[in-house]
Amino acid sequence: MLVIGLTGGIGSGKSTVAELFAAKGIPVLDADLIARELVEPNQPAFDAIVRHFGARILRDGALDRAALRKVIFAHPEEKRWLEALLHPLVYSEIGRRIATLSAPYCIVVVPLLLETGQRQLVDRLLVVDCPEDIQRRRVKLRDGLTDAQIGQIMASQLGRAERLAAADDLLENIGDEATLAERVERLHRSYLTLSRQKT
């Protein structure tokens, strides 16, 4: 099976693009959603996270993501600790799920694919891109974050030029959804062709 890695900066439109592929019947695995599953109570990472960070990151017996986000963005060493715990678990689970699929290709959404050195997990890299001012505006509307918080997140991600240089395929998300859907359709046809060549 052809494995397409889908990445891009925060607010670039990765989720929208993933939904467009899913609407075509293509399996989509999202690293962020898998990570959320892995940190639920009674899941592999939950106890380790609570032991490390303490009760300050809990709310009603579950992980308080907002509290955890504040800690890891204020303390880079805590962010590194959390990533060292979660990334191997997430990538292992992605591999396990890919092995169960039967489709011409699948999309694996990994916002930090390049930053975590996991490019080898995918056959092709699709980067969703838009100018940084559009990213900031989308994130502010979607998540209600401050400019400073958005800046911190963007600073923790690979620079736009580096992401673009690493792309096998580039999807500019600066127009309307109909234009984006047309671009996804072209990529879909291309990936179907490539998947036949891979087998």
Q: What is the makeup of the main sheet?
A: 5 strands, parallel
Low-confidence spans: none
Q: What would CATH call the class of the largest domain?
A: Alpha Beta
Count of all domains: 2
Separation of termini?
Answer: 8 Å
| Architecture per CATH nomenclature, i.e. the level-2 architecture of the largest domain | 3-Layer(aba) Sandwich
Biggest sheet strand line-up:
2-5-1-6-7
- Percentage beta strand: 5-15%
Tally of separate helices: 9
Order of helices and strands: EHEHHEEHHEEHHHEH
Averaged pLDDT: 91
**CATH topology call of the largest domain:** Rossmann fold
The helix content, as a percent range, equals: 55-70%
Beta-strand segment tally: 7
Q: What integer value in Å does the Rg equal?
A: 17 Å
CATH homologous superfamily annotation of the largest domain: P-loop containing nucleotide triphosphate hydrolases
Broad shape: globular
Which structural class is indicated by helix and strand composition? alpha/beta
Enzyme class: transferase
Pathway: Cofactor biosynthesis; coenzyme A biosynthesis; CoA from (R)-pantothenate: step 5/5
Keywords: ATP-binding, Coenzyme A biosynthesis, Cytoplasm, Kinase, Nucleotide-binding, Transferase
Subcellular location: Cytoplasm
In summary, what is this structure?
The chain has 199 residues and is an alpha/beta fold.
Which SSEs are present, and which pair or pack?
Layout (H helix, E strand, L loop, with lengths): L1 E6 L6 H9 L5 E3 H8 L7 H8 L4 E2 L2 E2 L1 H10 L1 H24 L5 E5 L14 E6 L2 H12 L3 H10 L3 H7 L2 E4 L4 H22 L1
Parallel strand pairs: 1-5, 1-6, 2-5, 6-7
Antiparallel strand pairs: 3-4
Helix pairs in contact: 2-5, 4-5
